[in-house]
Amino acid sequence: MAKKSTPPTKAAPASPGRKLFEYAPAPESRAAAGDIATSYGHYIGGEFVESTGKEALKTIDPSTEQVLAEFAQGTEEDVERAVKAARDAFPGWSALPGAERGKYLFRIARIIQERSRELAVLESIDNGKPIRETRDVDLPLVAAHFFYYAGWADKLEFAGYGPNPRPVGVAAQVIPWNFPLLMLAWKIAPALATGNTVVLKPAETTPLTALRFADICAQAGLPKGVVNIITGDGRTGAALTGHAGVDKVAFTGSTEVGRAIARTLAGSRTRLSLELGGKAANILFDDAPIDQAVEGIVDGIFFNQGHVCCAGSRLLVQESVHDEVMDSLKRRMATLRVGDPLDKNTDIGAINSAAQLARIRELTDAGEAEGAERWSPACELPSAGYWFAPTVFTGVSATHRVAREEIFGPVLSVLTFRTPEEAVAKANNTPYGLSAGIWTEKGSRILWMASQLRAGVVWSNTFNKFDPTSPFGGYKESGYGREGGRHGLEAYLDV
Fold first, then answer.
1. DSSP string spanning 118-177?
2. What is the DSSP pairing of strand 248-252 with strand 271-275?
3. Lower Cβ count inside 10 Å, N or C end of the chain?
4. How many CB atoms lie within 10 A of CB 55?
5. What is the pLDDT of residue 10?
6. Is 275 marked active-site?
7. Rounded alpha-carbon distances, angstroms, from residue 477 to 172, 178, 258, 262
8. Pairing mode, if any, of strands 411-417 and 56-61?
9. What is 467-494 written as a DSSP string?
C-alpha cells in the first residue's frame, strides 16, 4: 500500500525516537472473491454459452495490471440469440402475478446479501475501487434496490401510471465500469419488477460481477431467458441498442455514446433513457460549517477515485472563506491513503484503466498549461498499476478545460463567487446538469438555490447520498429519464 502523507497538524508531538502513528496494512483476502474462470462466454437462456465469434477480450486488475480472465466479444449473432431468448421468456414472465415476480427479486436480494463479501472483493479486484466502498456502499445499495423494487412488483397499479400498467417488453441495458454491480441493480431490478425481460451488456473493463450475477439468477431459480448477459466492447453495445427486437434501451455512460444511441433510435418506436456525464458544482457559502463541508467536498470528488458521473468536480467557494476552506481541504487531502484497493484502510484505489488514466493526465496537464495552480499532497504511488494522486486546482476560470470537461478522476477545480446569484450563474454555466451540492446554514437559501440550479439532484449539506426510493437523472447533456424510486418504474411500463 502506498504511504500516506503526514497531516501538518497533530494531536500531540511524537516522542523522541518513536515513529509517528501509521496504519498497519489490513488487506482483505483475494480468495474471498471465489473462483474466477480463465474464460467466460455469454449467459443466454439461463446458461453460459460460447460466442459465435472467435474474438476474446481480457479484463485486468487495475491495481496490478494482471489479467484476471478472458471473456467473449459479443457478435451480432450473439445479440440476436440473447434478444430472442428474452423475447421467448417475456410472455411467461409478464403473465406472472406481481407477487410472484416479487418473490424472485426478494430471493435475489437475499442471495446478494449472503454473498456480499465475495461480490465486494470481486468488484474491487476488477474495478480498482477500495474494498471499504464496495463493502459498505455498493453492495448494501445493490441489495436495497432489489428489495425496494420487489416490494413494488405487486403494487404497480398504485404507482400513478394508470390502473393497469403493462410491461414494455425486452429491455436492452448497457452499464458503465464505475459502479458495475450497482448500475446493474439500478436497471435490472425495476425492469423485472414491472414484468420485462432483459439483455444486459456490462462494460468491457469490468464484466466479472455481472457474470457472477448470472450465477445468482440461476441460484434464485429465475426462469430461463428473463435475464441474459452478453459481454463485449462498444461494438456489442451498438449491436444491442440498435437491435430491432428490443422495446426499451437504458444506457449509462459517456455523453458521446449517448448521442450516438439517440441518433440510432431517432424515429423508431424504441424507448430510450440516458444517464450521461456530469460536471457538478459543490457550492460553499461563508456561513457553512467548514469542517463538515470539507468532508463533503472530499467525499464528493475523491469517492471512487472520482469515477462518478455526479462527482462534485467544481468547488464554488464564497470569496470571504476561500483561504480558510483551502487550508482545511489541503490538510484533509494530506491524510488520504492511496494504494491497494483490498486494504481496508485505503481511501483512493486504482484508476480503472490505462485509457482513463491517460485522459486524466491529459486534462490535468491542460489545467497547468492554461495557468491554473495545481496541488497534490505528497503521495508515494505503487510502481505497478494505474494510479493518480488526489489533485486540486485553484485559480481556475470558467474557460479552463478542467472547469468545463468531465475528467472522471480525483481532480477538483476551485472557483470563487461573491453573491448567491453569481454562484447560480457559475454553477449553471455548463452543458451538463446531473447534480449539485449546497453548503449553508440558511434553509431559505438552500430552497432558493435548489430552485435555480439546473440539476437533476441537489444535495444540501451533504453529497453523494443515494437511496433506492429517490429518483436520479439529469438535464441537458447529462441525459433524460429517471432511475430509482417510483419514477424509475415509468421507463419500463407501457402507460
1. HHHHHHHHHH---HHHIIIIIHHHHHHHHHHHHHHTT-GGGTTS-SS-EE-SEEEEE--S
2. parallel
3. C
4. 12
5. 34
6. yes
7. 21, 19, 9, 12
8. unpaired
9. -TTS-B--SGGGEE--BSTTHHHHTTEE
DSSP state, residue 343: B
Q: How far is CA 122 from CA 116, 140, 200, in A?
A: 10, 15, 19
Residues in the chain where the model's pLDDT stays below 50:
1-19
Burial of 14 (0-12, 13-18, 19+ CB in 10 A): exposed
Q: DSSP labels for 85-123?
A: HHHHHHHHHHHS-HHHHHHHHHHHHHHHHHTHHHHHHHH
Percent of the chain topping pLDDT 90:
94
C-alpha cell at 138: 455498493
Catalytic-residue membership of 310: no
pLDDT at 8: 37
Q: List all residues 6 or more positions away from 72 whose beta carbon is below 8 Å from its beta carbon.
A: 39, 40, 41, 42, 50, 51, 53, 55, 56, 57, 78, 230, 231, 232
Q: What is the pLDDT of residue 21?
A: 64
Active-site residue, from 217, 309, 310, 379:
309
> What is the sign, positive or negative, of the torsion defined by CA atoms of 47, 48, 51, 52?
negative
Residue 480, by phi and psi: left (phi above 0), alpha (psi -120 to 50) or beta? Answer: beta
Residue 66 bridge partners (DSSP): 61
Kindly list the distances between the CA atom of residue 382 and the CA atoms of 95, 191, 340, 462, in Å, as whole numbers in the listed order: 54, 41, 8, 32
Query: 368 is written with which cell numbers?
Result: 497547468
pLDDT of residue 20: 53
- Secondary structure class of 238 (helix, strand, coil): helix
Q: Which of 275, 406, 483, 490 is catalytic?
A: 275
